[in-house]
Amino acid sequence: MINRLAVMALFLASGVAAQSDPVAKGGSPDLSAPMTDSLQIDADTSLDVSPGDTIRYSVLIGNAGGASSPADNSVFTAVLDSNTALVVGSVTTTQGSVTSGNTGGDTSPIVNIGSLFVGASATVTFDVLVDDPFPMGVMQISAQGTVTSTQQTIDTDDPDTVDPSDATVTDSAQLPVELQEFSVE
Ligand SMILES: [Ca+2]
Ligand SMILES: [Ca+2]
Questions:
Q1: How many CB atoms within 10 Å of residue 29?
Q2: Which partner from 50, 137, 151, 169 sits 20 to 30 angstroms from 63, CA to CA?
Q3: What angle do CA 94, 96, 99 make, to 5 degrees?
Q4: How many CA atoms lie within 13 A of 110 on its CB side?
């Protein structure tokens, strides 16, 4: 991250417009994949993520690469939190096909996106069920996706944090709900 910032600063200092110069992009794809989380089903109407609830992840996979530089054979996979379970049948994509996640016995999402052209994007969504009961002392749920392609492989990004390729973390004071009381501000 620091190195990337330093490089960007050098570009800016030298007057080179890194984003608009096609030479700077070369002929390579430039993938991005922010993965957001949201409370899809609040089973206990607690207004917060808690055991038994359903979290929906949404991944916007984009390619901002140089001209004529698709990301070929793009495939999305994800490693889910061990205290959650994929909701079989919940996996969707706006491009390509779901190869794992919608058939009985599937435990993780795999989506075959195919070629993702420059300027194009594909949105993948899937749901997980939060374990109930949930282990005491665990305050977070995290999931990390990966997009592989012939030209480039990247991890998904939690857009809530500065780190450009970190797991998507769901915080909740309600998770170890059995033994704690919380004041509402
Ligand atoms: Ca809840
Ligand atoms: Ca981040």
A1: 25
A2: 169
A3: 110
A4: 7
CATH architecture, domain defined by 4-167: Sandwich (2.60)
pLDDT over 70, % of the chain:
79
Q: How far is the CA of 82 from the centre of ligand 2 (A)?
A: 21
Distance 105 CA to ligand 2 centre (A): 31
Q: Which ligand is nearest to the CA of 40?
A: 1
pLDDT of residue 1: 47
Q: Give the per-residue pLDDT at 67.
A: 82
Using DSSP, state whether 179 is helix, strand or coil.
helix
Instruction: Name every residue whose Cβ is closer than 8 Å to that of residue 164 and which is 6 or more positions away in sequence.
Output: 1, 4, 157
Spacing, Cα 140 to ligand 1 middle (Å):
14
As a whole number, the mean pLDDT across the chain is: 86
pLDDT per position as a tens digit, 104-144: 999 999 999 999 999 999 999 999 999 999 998 888 999 99
Q: Return the CA Rg of the chain.
A: 19
Which among 32, 30, 38 is positioned nearest to 125, based on CA atoms?
38
Between the CA of 164 and the centroid of ligand 2 the distance, in Å, is 4
